[in-house]
Amino acid sequence: MAELTAQGDGPKLKWRRALPLGETVVLGRADSAFAVPWEKWLSRSHAELSWGGDCLQVRQLPTAGNPIFFRGEPTTTFSVPPGGCFSIGRTIFTLTVAESLRSPSEAKPVLHSYAVTADELQRVPFRDAPHRLEVLRHLTKLIFSVSNDVELFEQTVALLMEGIRRADAIALVSPGEDEKAERVRLVHTEHRYIATGEFRPSMRLAREAIVHRHSSVVHVWSAGAAGGNAQQFTMQADYDWAFCTPLRGEASHGLGIYVAGRLSGGEPSTILAPWDSNDLSEDVKFAEMVSDVLSALRQTQSLQRRQNVLSHFFSPSVLTLLATTDPEAALRPRETEVTVLFCDLRGFSRKVEMAAGDLTSVLERVSKALGVMSTCILEQKGVVADFLGDAAMGFWGWPVSQPDDVQQACQAALRIRASFEMFGSQSDHPLAGFKVGIGIATGHAVAGQIGSQDQAKVTVFGPVVNLASRLEGLTKVLRVPILLDEATARTALGAMPAGTARCRRLAMIKPYGLEQALMVSELLPPASQDPILSDHFLAEYEAALDAFLAGHWSEAYERLHVIPPQDLGKDFLTGYILQQNHTPPAGWNGVISIESKR
Fold first, then answer.
1. What is the DSSP string of 67-113?
2. Domain 104-302: which topology?
3. What is this structure's pTM?
4. Tens digit of each residue's pLDDT (9 = 90 or more) over 504-557
5. Does residue 399 have a cis peptide bond before it, meaning omega lies within 30 degrees of 0?
6. Distance from the Cα of residue 536 to its chain's centroid
7. CATH for 2-100?
């Protein structure tokens, strides 16, 4: 692979582009992949470039108003070898090919190499302490101003360049995991002067510091480059010394600060004697200090991101527990007693059909609906396990079990119901017209974090999950918002006062696909919040159900008609009695079988 690098007269005026083999590209200021917008001496279409596999053919176009300099002379047509360069105005273009990706420093003998310990750095004084401290002060300000890693790396490398005055190039690097790789990945690079060659850090040095020693390592290769004053202002791709300081912590694993420069004509021996006045110890110490600040910041940011991700699944109380214990142990899957809540959005399919031309708006409304569900679950100390299309699943009892898990689940369901009733009555609200069906079941299950190291989620599985899902589906059949299984209803009746919530048995049901019949109950708000079902009517329904189960259907039918017609929950029993012509089937055992999955 061949690449062309453009470097202007400022550290941020640069780019690198891959050259397609056998194709011609146009270099200029026009809007294209090879545009150089900062170079005012460049025409819109200035030169044609063609990479043939061994060299780069360059031809100046007739429309170009300024010359191209190659090897110091204005030239209109020429061939650039690997590693060669040409210039237009103040921008230098350098050709790099795969064979030359390896750093020149790798082929040179290391005259001196030493790792730096923390104890040695503690004894090193700063001779220009005020300047270094001022740079560090700017770094602490930087922490509160950047919005992403790209900005953070750019600003940090720029401050390092300001603080390490003898450096010619500084980069944030990553040697990667591949032991056979020859090229260090450059995360961000800054040059002090205009570069006439690509900055290629030593893989040997970067790997020794970041991968093997986990401490700063200094390499000195040779004396400074010869060539007079011009060498002091024109950077080459090769350097006489460099050191690499690793970043520490999980969030910065594999990253390091790489600093390189020249001896400016001096001999290597001037920086070989450890910790004398001419060595690099002060610069290494400064890089270590910046590394510590940058590593701590990225670790904090990583923890904040994790906290934000977890906040979508766990309530604040559970997050507090995870922060004070071993998260891996706390999130490990285990068998436990859980209460599972399934909540499904009603009216979603119809809304999709009606808004087939504007599905984005429907998605936004569904997102708001799921947000209401998850908020109510989290506020009642539950765990949001999954979103299944227009449905949400939450559960209680893991990672920590509380005595009031069932009550919390019931309160979450009532809050979801109340929220959708309130929003549904507002014609201009995004949730207008939507309703919900909720099923809650309590039982044994396995709960925890499952998945691979790269992708995992918190979930719960077991028969109780299937039962909660079936109960949610039965809300369509029984025409009530919230259904409970027997275990949940039993706990709710015993633990929740009537001023908080009420329950009524609806029917003995054998759901489709399940072997066992169960008494299905409806969860209701307190009488003070229910304009239809007073406690008196609730008692009438309970008496009607007892008569129905005992086979006294005439009595059951009469009692059901005492209840206000607005109560849709009574319609299931009433309809079943009518379907059977007011006569219980032979061998009646009180169980109504649901013949299909709703």
1. --EETTEE-SEEEE-TT-EEEETTEEEEEEEGGG-S-GGGGS--SEE
2. Beta-Lactamase (3.30.450)
3. 0.54
4. 999 999 988 788 899 999 999 999 999 899 999 999 999 999 999 999 999 999
5. yes
6. 53
7. 2.60.200.20
